[in-house]
Design brief:
It contains 24 helices and 23 strands. It is an alpha+beta fold and 634 residues long. The strands form seven sheets. Strands 2, 3, 4, 5, 10, 18 and 19 form a seven-stranded mixed beta sheet that branches. The chain has a five-stranded antiparallel beta sheet with strand order 12-11-23-22-21, with helices on both faces. Strands 1-8-9 form a three-stranded antiparallel beta sheet. A hairpin with a 5-residue loop joins strand 2 and strand 3.
């Protein structure tokens, strides 16, 4: 019993001790509250009434873009932006009227800014509203002079960065550009739970800027400062006292892209191209990575990023050659005689011919009551597969097309990737058109649907065929490597701001093409003869130290009553499109290159020299400049 009494006494002692310490803690809290609310209450009330917390966004640096050799392609340059904090703006309409013209704001833009300032509620009243991005020196001087006169209350200038596309039009259709997010798009994003953008923010609109928006865009930080009721920033000591240490969160920069594009090869494509409009693409045969993609005419991304000036938009819209269009993926064209390689493979696979089969060419092909002309009026006589590719005999392929039918040709075309998007990481890619009997039945229903004549036209790359240049070069790369069709890619890896690799891209196989080795060999032999054998349609472009193989193509864009051999007598838009697609070295291909010269006439003269120059740049390291004359190129 005595033992239990001792335990009770110990428990009471502990209880009283805990109660005493609790009393001391509670007393300390009461004393602190008394000091804050009674002794200094009036002081803090005055501070809370006279000061406000303004939160300024710290815009994250956007990730950089490098070429495959680590050379900077897209950078960020410092800029100054004009903001207004709605809570501190005294005369929004008057202020905007005073600076609006100098800020180059349209009436619609002024109205939108005014609506945002006047419509701000709650904490949004203390968030800065963007007025004008990337102020010029004259605009800065105007703002400062207005502020010195006591105007522009609530307006302030903040640091930011603006994209610097260092090579302008050269890489425009690869890099793309940014522009401001609109109110409607912002609302749609908010509905999906994406609150990372604010009105006036920039985001990628075209090219890799758009495709890699999530990687390139960093995470914004913020800085909270104490200001008085005029928006004037208060002392650091007061800010620390009211807000503590959690006043600034540094922004997190975006990730960097390292491309497969080689700036030297891209420059060679620009320098060698001699047409008014067209495209040049070079790819690695064994990986599918793109080392050059040049589409012209183009736009300067520096002039369309942010706010697109009205005069610049008018200039671009007025250009009939459509510089906004990426011809590599957004336009499709009849492939002309470059298609003959696929007709040949189809006929070989179906057992319709062997490489030794002879087909007569009297200068035309006759089927029913219709006659199709060969480009050589006198004909080629009896001709086999190899020479039919070398000299590009039309009659040989007319005959194959009539016997194969359009669906057999379509099956081969689709296996090589035609008629579907390549999945390259660029926006607005179109699938192209592979004609089938069903398609002709649909689009020519009033005229009786599909007819054999349509397969005859298809066999030489005319008719309803419509492919993108990127599809064509990837298909020829598959011929060069023996049957592996790759998906084209532009980004080799993604790195963080310190250069550490975040993600690496490996080659992607789109299809494995199964043809007999002797069939591959027969077609490739013919393609090498095009450039390296007398009589070949590109024989004049042969290189003594580099075996180049490929195919010329001349595709009609307008049906003419008679064949015109001198295309220069025609109006520009009536001239044929000129193709050349090739690869090198012929015995161990590394690169495939396609050039399309819109309305360039004949492929051997207009496009083959560009392909040769680009292949020499890629393989031999011989880089030309824009000053190189046409004679030197050829």
């Amino acid at each position: 019993m005595a033992l239990r009494t001792d335990e009770v006494n110990k428990f009471r002692a502990r209880f009283y001790a805990l109660a005493f310490f609790a009393f001391l803690a509670f007393s300390a809290i009461v004393i602190r509250l008394w000091a804050l609310q009674i002794q200094r209450g009036e002081e803090f009330t005055q501070k809370s009434e006279q000061n406000f917390v303004q939160e300024k966004r710290l815009i994250a640096d956007r990730g950089l873009i490098f070429d495959g050799k680590g050379r900077l392609i897209v950078d960020n340059r410092p800029a100054l932006d004009l903001y207004a904090t709605p809570a501190f703006v005294r005369n929004a309409a008057g202020s905007l009227a005073a600076i609006g013209p100098a800020m180059q704001l349209t009436s619609e833009e002024e109205a939108a800014v005014l609506k945002r300032i006047k419509g701000a509620r709650g904490l949004d009243r203390f968030q800065g509203a963007l007025i004008r991005r990337d102020l010029s020196r004259d605009q800065l001087e105007l703002i400062e002079s207005q502020r010195m006169m006591g105007e522009l209350a609530g307006f302030y200038i903040s640091d930011s960065g603006v994209r610097d596309y260092r090579f302008g039009e050269l890489l425009a259709h690869v890099t793309g550009y940014q522009n401001e997010i609109g109110a409607d798009e912002l609302e749609r994003r908010l509905k999906t739970g994406d609150s990372s953008y604010k009105l006036g923010d920039l985001l990628g609109r075209r090219g890799l800027e758009r495709a890699n928006e999530l990687d390139l865009r960093g995470k914004d930080g913020y800085e909270r400062v104490v200001v008085d009721n005029t928006g004037t920033r208060q002392s650091e000591a007061l800010t620390r006292e009211l807000l503590g240490d959690d006043r600034r969160h540094e922004p997190l920069p975006g990730k960097n892209l390292v491309l497969s594009i080689d700036l030297d090869i891209q420059r060679a494509a620009e320098a060698a191209f001699t047409g008014q409009a067209g495209v040049v693409i070079a790819v690695e045969v064994d990986t599918g990575f793109i080392v050059a993609l040049y589409s012209t005419p183009a736009y300067d991304p520096n002039r369309v990023t942010g706010r697109l000036a009205g005069k610049e938009k008018e200039r671009l819209d007025a250009n009939p050659l459509k510089p906004n269009i990426n011809r590599a993926i957004q336009e499709h064209y009849a492939p002309g005689s470059t298609y003959k390689a696929f007709t040949a493979l189809t006929a070989l696979a179906h057992g319709l011919i062997t490489p030794e089969s002879w087909i007569p060419c009297p200068g035309y092909y006759k089927y029913g009551g219709n006659k199709w002309r060969c480009f050589k009026d006198s004909g080629h006589g009896g001709i086999q597969l190899h020479k039919s590719l070398v000299v590009s005999c039309d009659t040989y392929y007319y005959s194959l097309g009539a016997k194969l039918g359009v669906d057999a040709l379509a099956e081969t075309a689709k296996s090589f990737g035609f008629g579907r998007r390549t999945n390259v990481s660029l926006d607005q890619e179109i699938p192209g058109i592979v004609p089938t009997a069903a398609l002709h039945d649909e689009i020519n229903a009033k005229d009786g649907g599909y007819r054999v004549s349509m397969a005859i036209n298809t066999s030489v790359g005319q008719g309803a065929n419509a492919f993108t240049p990127l599809q064509l070069v990837m298909a020829y790369a598959a011929i060069a490597n023996g049957g592996t069709l790759y998906e084209p890619q532009l980004v080799r890896r993604i790195e963080d701001v310190d250069g550490r690799v975040v993600k690496t891209y490996e080659p992607k196989v789109a299809n494995k093409l199964e043809y007999k080795q002797e069939h591959w060999d027969a077609v490739r032999s013919g393609l090498c003869g095009v450039v390296n054998e007398a009589g070949g349609t590109a024989y004049g472009k042969r290189q003594p130290d580099l075996i180049i193989c490929g195919k010329t193509g001349t595709a009609q864009v307008k049906k003419l009553k008679a064949r015109v051999k001198d295309q220069k007598v025609l109006d520009y838009l009536d001239r044929d499109n000129a193709w050349f697609v090739g690869y090198a070295p012929g015995d161990a291909p590394k690169y495939a290159v396609v050039t399309l010269t819109e309305h360039g006439g004949f492929g051997g003269g207009a496009s083959a020299p560009t392909v040769v120059a680009v292949l020499r740049a890629a393989i031999k390291g011989e880089f030309i400049t824009k000053d190189t004359t046409k004679a030197e190129l050829r």
